[in-house]
Amino acid sequence: MSTPIRYYFSLFILVIFTGCGATPGFTTSKKTLPNAPTYTYIDTKGNTYAISQNKFIYDPVSEDDTIDGLDDEGYHQEINISLNDYAKIAAACDRQFEETQKELPANYNGNVIPTLLRSYPDRTDELTLSIKGVDELDYILIPYLDNE
């Protein structure tokens, strides 16, 4: 290709990309959300899930720190997540705060009371979860963990 043709072709491609909203060398995607809360979920076995805008941390109970000394819930994991993943998890957590949580049944045999915390810079909301709430959060969160 001759130089003028190459120049006009490059200019044409640049016009096409910028016309479609592409800005070469610049990114406009947000990396954080202002005032977004962090969430801490403690399941019925005592495993802790900490969710922030870009990180999902799973801190499981181990054979050494369980009540019964038998359950071993895997390995500590820190997973980078996207804002879309955070938004999906946050929506599931916020839904629990909006729903009426039933009391745990009298025959509940979990090691700990399942709890969900929503932390803002100036306050923390705490919620005791029903079994249904635990199931809904587990359904969203468990797929993020690596298979062991």
Question: How would you describe what is shown here?
Answer:
With 148 residues, this protein is of the alpha+beta class. The protein is built from 3 helices and 6 strands, in the order αββββαββα. It has helices at 3-19, 83-98, 131-141, and strands at 38-42, 48-51, 55-59, 77-80, 115-119, 124-128. A 6-stranded antiparallel β-sheet has the order 4-3-2-1-5-6, with helices on one face. Strand 5 and strand 6 form a beta hairpin. Helix 2 (83-98) packs antiparallel against helix 3 (131-141). The longest helix has 17 residues, at 3-19. The mean pLDDT is 81.
Protein topology:
Elements: H1 3-19, E1 38-42, E2 48-51, E3 55-59, E4 77-80, H2 83-98, E5 115-119, E6 124-128, H3 131-141
Antiparallel strand pairs: 1-2, 1-5, 2-3, 3-4, 5-6
Summarize this entry quickly.
With about 150 residues, the protein is an alpha+beta fold. The protein is about 30% helix and about 20% strand.
Whole-number mean pLDDT: 81
The amount of helix comes to 25-40%
Strand portion, in percent? Answer: 15-25%
Distance between the termini: 55 Å
Question: What are the main properties of this structure?
Answer:
alpha+beta, 148 residues, six-stranded antiparallel beta sheet, 3 helices
